[in-house]
Specification:
Blueprint lengths: L9 E3 L2 H10 L5 E4 L6 E3 L3 H13 L5 E3 L6 E3 L3 H7 L7 E3 L6 E3 L3 H7 L1 H11 L3 E2 L6 E2 L3 E3 L5 E3 H10 L13
Antiparallel strand pairs: 1-2, 2-3, 4-5, 6-7, 8-9, 10-11
GO molecular function, one term: ubiquitin protein ligase activity
Organism: Paramecium sonneborni
Keywords: Metal-binding, Zinc, Zinc-finger
């Protein structure tokens, strides 16, 4: 582990601070700039600040970085969470999970509400039609239900259970 030497830089305040010191009596006019982060602080908090800077150097996730979308300074640990809610990030393109058409993230909810594939899937669910997880076709006839309550085509699930002894959806072990 590399040890970082911190150089103390003392900055004396100008005549305005000297005037304030005379008014307050206890005000210190010596300031120190941290060599790690360039922040200027009073001398009495310098040692605490240096310990915090060293902790940030040890833990790379605590560094701040600029969001490339909106320009805000974000702690690296929370950068991905910020991208989920970043207003500037809503103009990236994503794919609709139903029809796989590329749309802007900001328009995705509106697109899904009008997506014919989504509406068709919703209608099938209202009618009680489910998809077979093995062949991905609608299960209308020749249904077979496992003891975990999942429904498949009889032929599909029989062929599946010859190779596997578990449900293709929930992985629960099935009895013969």
């Amino acid at each position: 582990m590399q040890r970082i030497r911190v150089q103390q830089i003392k900055i004396t305040a100008g005549s305005q601070l000297e005037q304030n010191q005379q008014d307050r009596g206890s005000f210190q006019n010596n300031y120190i700039a941290c060599n790690l982060c360039d922040q200027i602080m009073q001398e009495n908090v310098y040692q605490i600040h240096i310990k915090m800077c060293e902790q940030q150097i040890k833990n790379g996730n605590l560094f701040e970085q600029e969001c490339q979308q909106c320009g805000l300074i974000i702690i690296k640990l929370y950068y991905n969470d910020h991208l989920d809610i970043c207003e500037a990030n809503c103009w990236i393109q994503v794919k609709c999970p139903y029809c796989f058409i590329a749309v802007f993230k900001v328009d995705l909810k509106d697109h899904i509400s009008k997506c014919s594939f989504f509406l068709n899937q919703q209608q099938k669910e209202k009618e009680g039609i489910q998809n077979c997880a093995v062949c991905l076709e609608d299960v209308i006839e020749n249904k077979s239900q496992l003891n975990c309550s999942h429904i498949f085509h009889q032929d599909c699930i029989n062929n599946w259970l010859i190779l596997h002894r578990n449900c293709p959806i929930c992985k629960k072990t099935q009895d013969k």
